[in-house]
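Recall the central idea of this unit: under ordinary conditions, the amino acid sequence of a chain determines the structure it adopts. In this exercise we apply that idea directly, starting from the sequence alone.
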Amino acid sequence: MSKNIFENSGELNKCLAGKSETVLLSFSLGKEGTCSWLNLRKYFKKIIPYYLYTIPDLEFVNKSIDYYEQYFGTKIIQMPHPALFRMLNNFVFQSPDNCKILEEMQLPNIDYEDIRENLIKDYGLDSEIYIAQGVRQDDSLQRRMSIKKYGVLNSRKHTFYPIFDWTKQQMLDCFQENNIKLPVDYEMFGRTFDGVDYRFLKPIYDRYPADYQRIIEFFPLAELELKRREWRESHVGKN
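Accordingly, the structure predicted from this sequence is:
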């Protein structure tokens, strides 16, 4: 398929739905992913969503997943994000003792294509199945330039962007028309959770202390993120 033959997202979705009634959806719990899911229902008979977790079994994430599962009436598959293995293998926020253990564990370095292959194998899916990703060209100048250069469909990686031409207003209208909510992530971070730096840790520490401790189990020295900020704020104006 040529990357330049699709004048709009409707044309793109119709094309792929004509080849298969089933599609995978990379679902981050974010607004683009939610609008993608709602839009895909117009074209595909079966949507298989999956969520890639940075930290497994966080309470606030589980609540959001439960909400979307009930709303859509579909189970959301949960798998580890490649970033989780990457951070562990690079000893991010790890103590010396943990570094030694992680070296011995020899965790795999997985990528998104590995995830697709595992989904196909584990769930008996067609090897040609495509993954829908919530990417919009209006999200940023860099995103627009990337789409212009590489297109909205990647036949080699079997990925496509089902709402690539949607505006912010279209997404707002979609949420209102479907009476669906955003996850608490947007209230706490202004975006979906995907890291262990201060902008994520502090709101979680304040509102979900058990989840904060869960993160520390995986990244024990992440507490330094809070300690550094506390020290800096306490010393502002004292020099």
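The beta strands are 22-26, 46-53, 77-80, 131-133, 153-154, 159-160.
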